[in-house]
Amino acid sequence: MKRFDITRVAYFLYCLIKRSGFAHAEFLKKRNCFDAMGEKCFFQPYNLPADSKLIRFGNNVVVASNVSFICHDVIHHMFNGLENGESIATYRDVIDIKDNVLIGANSTILAGVTIGTNSIIAAGAIVTSDVLEGTIVGGVPAKEIGRFDDMRKQRKEYSQREYVGLNKSDMIEKLWNLHDNRYQGGL
What we know:
Strand order of the largest sheet: 2-4-7-10-12-13
Order of helices and strands: HHEEEEEHEEEEEEEEHH
Helix content: 25-40%
Number of helices: 5
Number of domains: 1
CATH superfamily: Hexapeptide repeat proteins
Strand content: 15-25%
Largest sheet: 6 strands, mixed
CATH architecture: 3 Solenoid
Structural class: alpha/beta
Radius of gyration: 20 Å
Number of strands: 13
């Protein structure tokens, strides 16, 4: 088994024991799994990308569950199987994630992409091109759907609601009551 394969297995087992994305990030940083990983990173996926040395994380990067980083493709296998005898190389490129970035669950980031500072990738997005600083992108392929500063303002307002500081069971009851009141007349 290659050293990187052993690290992948060790990481998966570590994820089963330690559930914290902050602990996952520290495990990966300590083992130098990526080209770089900044401070205060959170890494929730259980799978480690195959070409992880082609990925760089800035500071305060949050990666949610089931995010895929694709730094190479396999189309060369199909092209090389054509009867004309061509020899096509594997395409590889880097993924560069700047500071203060959230990558939502089940997103895919493709090779050659830079995600700018203060950006959010919505859950389920497929990012095929660069993400500009201060934007929120979502969809397939990912397109701008909002602004980082607007989302930050919305979450600050949410943080002021009376139920945010409640214990979990009281908060759940309050949220269901609010929901039921909102939809009393149906949809």
